[in-house]
């Protein structure tokens, strides 16, 4: 039988253990949390089970032929289990896998089941073994320096011998009493059954990337709200050694019983760590400098978060799955609305540029161009895309109402506007509809007399002259952007109740700026305070 020889570090020293261990698929190898090398060693197999004392080299009484030895009464079995269980905690499931089938089959015959039967056997020898529970995982370790009583008719009253490094029932490498090593834990859920999104969801439970948290019932309960049924936090953390560290330390409760404690920590991958060499104070000053560009401020906010408040959301995987969970389940949301929904301390961890989120996780997001040209909308990838409208299906009255809704609040409605000035503020589909209008004056400016009217150029001494003249006489650069179409510069303004509604909005802005809305018509002269 082949065994895997692996090492772990405890207290600054390397300890080797020869255990038969199968690493679940999906776990990282060299350099991971498990920390064992890919070395193999041949061990002596336990061949005394089911054989006579001469063949097995044992001095125990020979069992009557045709009768299988009792699991609870065979002293050789207890010696083997004692030699298999190390002095540090391992899961009962791992011990069951290390024992030969010849040992485990009598348990099945007794209808006990592998793990339950082994647990019952271990519990029946409290002088030899210490049983405990880590989260949902049953663990065990052997007691050192004891001479337990072995029940049963064969060898009653004898002591269990300590395993010798060279004995037939001993591993090839001596076991030493060491603190619990992460490699000694076996997850309850196999690694291949855990999806990556489970890693990134439970990462939100960690206060930051520097703090080690204790595995408690409250933490398990919070994780259960984020995980599929039957999956536990410890198994998830053990399945991703590049994202989590698991440290187990042995201890005792008030009654003196074994009470090992599990400590977990989230690891921030190097590619998501901060790159700025500036101090936190310098980053803070640049971030609050009014001359710093907005895009630069996003980068500075993230760098400052890396130094002062390094949350797990700095990992783009954690952030992407968080964004996915807060998206509406049946529709889309604009990028601006999304950022407003994220708490400030979490939004500081957003990547720069932001598009790295949906470009790096296309299986989570669908990107829609439904708003302004410089904005996008996001929705879950599993939500059906909205039906794409044809340009011909857009009515011109819809274009007009969108212009009304987006009319600049800092521009007096009496000076009007033109289609060229409205283009960049409209959704792309409406922009394309405007370009299909063959006669702007006839089909648009004069088509809705109850809502808008064409605007003629007033006399030079009129207070509105300068503002309206800027609409009628475009700059060469503006004319080039409009593809040379002069009809896009025909001025118009809203009339009737539509004019009154716009004026009320404009008057509120003027009141805040302490400007008389009736004495000025050129909004550009109103300065922000």
From TrEMBL:
It comes from the Eukaryota. Residues 52-62 have a biased composition (Basic and acidic residues). Residues 50-70, 150-171 are annotated as: Disordered. This is Uncharacterized protein. It comes from Strigomonas culicis.
């Amino acid at each position: 039988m082949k065994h895997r020889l692996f090492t772990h570090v405890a207290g600054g020293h390397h300890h080797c253990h020869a255990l038969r261990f199968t690493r679940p698929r999906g776990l990282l190898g060299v350099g991971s949390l498990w920390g064992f090398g890919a070395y193999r060693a041949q061990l002596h197999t336990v061949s005394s089970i089911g054989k006579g004392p001469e063949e097995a080299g044992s001095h125990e009484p020979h069992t009557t032929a045709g009768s299988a030895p009792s699991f609870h009464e065979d002293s050789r079995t207890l010696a083997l289990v004692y030699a298999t269980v190390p002095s540090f905690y391992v899961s009962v499931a791992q011990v069951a896998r290390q024992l030969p089938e010849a040992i485990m089959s009598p348990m099945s015959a007794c209808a006990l089941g592998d793990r339950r039967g082994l647990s019952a056997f271990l519990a029946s020898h409290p002088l030899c073994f210490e049983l405990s529970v880590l989260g949902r995982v049953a663990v065990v370790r052997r007691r050192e320096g004891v001479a337990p009583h072995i029940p049963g008719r064969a060898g009653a009253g004898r002591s269990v011998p300590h395993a010798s490094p060279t004995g037939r029932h001993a591993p090839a490498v001596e076991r030493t009493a060491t603190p619990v090593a992460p490699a000694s834990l076996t997850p309850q859920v196999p690694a291949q059954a855990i999806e990556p999104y489970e890693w990134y969801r439970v990462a939100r439970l960690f206060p930051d990337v520097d703090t080690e948290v204790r595995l408690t019932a409250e933490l398990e309960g919070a994780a259960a709200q984020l995980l599929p049924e039957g999956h536990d936090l410890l198994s998830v953390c053990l399945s991703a050694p590049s994202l989590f560290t698991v440290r187990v330390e042995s201890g005792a409760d008030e009654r003196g019983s074994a009470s090992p404690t599990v400590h977990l920590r989230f690891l921030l991958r190097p590619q998501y760590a901060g790159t700025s060499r500036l101090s936190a104070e310098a980053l803070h000053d640049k971030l609050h400098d009014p001359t710093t560009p907005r895009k630069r401020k996003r980068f500075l906010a993230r760098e400052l978060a890396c130094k002062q408040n390094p949350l797990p959301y700095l990992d783009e995987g954690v952030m992407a799955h968080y964004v996915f969970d807060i998206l509406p389940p049946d529709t889309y949301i604009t990028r601006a609305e999304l950022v407003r929904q994220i708490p400030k301390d979490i939004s500081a961890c957003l990547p720069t540029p932001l598009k790295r989120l949906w470009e790096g996780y296309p299986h989570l997001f669908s990107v829609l161009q439904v708003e302004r040209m410089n904005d996008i909308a996001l929705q879950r990838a599993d939500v059906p895309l909205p039906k794409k409208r044809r340009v011909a299906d857009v009515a011109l009255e819809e274009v007009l109402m969108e212009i009304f809704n987006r009319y600049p609040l800092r521009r007096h409605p009496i000076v009007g506007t033109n289609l060229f000035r409205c283009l960049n503020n409209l959704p792309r589909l409406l922009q394309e509809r405007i370009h299909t209008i063959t006669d702007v004056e006839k089909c648009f400016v004069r088509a809705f007399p109850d809502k808008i009217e064409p605007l003629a150029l007033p006399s030079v001494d009129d207070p509105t002259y300068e503002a309206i003249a800027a609409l009628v006489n475009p700059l060469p650069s503006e004319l080039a952007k409009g593809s040379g179409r002069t009809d896009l510069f025909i001025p118009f303004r809203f009339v009737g109740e539509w004019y009154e509604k716009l004026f009320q909005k404009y008057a509120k802005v003027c009141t805040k700026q302490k400007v008389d809305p009736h004495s000025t018509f050129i909004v550009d002269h109103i300065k922000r305070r």
